[in-house]
Amino acid sequence: MARCVLVACLVLCCGTCSQPLTLNPSSSVILEGWAASGKGALMKKVVKYMDPRGFQVHSMGPANPEERSYPFLWRFWQKMPPKGNINILYHSWYTRVLQQS
Q: What are the residue boundaries of the Polyphosphate kinase-2-related domain, all occurrences included (predicted)?
């Protein structure tokens, strides 16, 4: 039940600003959770109702050697959306915190 409500809220919030307009602010949706917690299914449900021109999905795996030479959050800064677009991060900097606890 809670997952259905969350999907409905995300679709309502993201669906209204999914078209790339210059006046809309950029926004990021971060999907984070344990393995097999339903992040992929939730992402598919949300993206299904959105205009594909207004968002990008980024899967954030382990840092490669080049990314490790920069500050920790650099690779996430590089994925921030331009004005009027939505960025969906499949994993984020919270993964490191969850794995270390």
A: 29-98
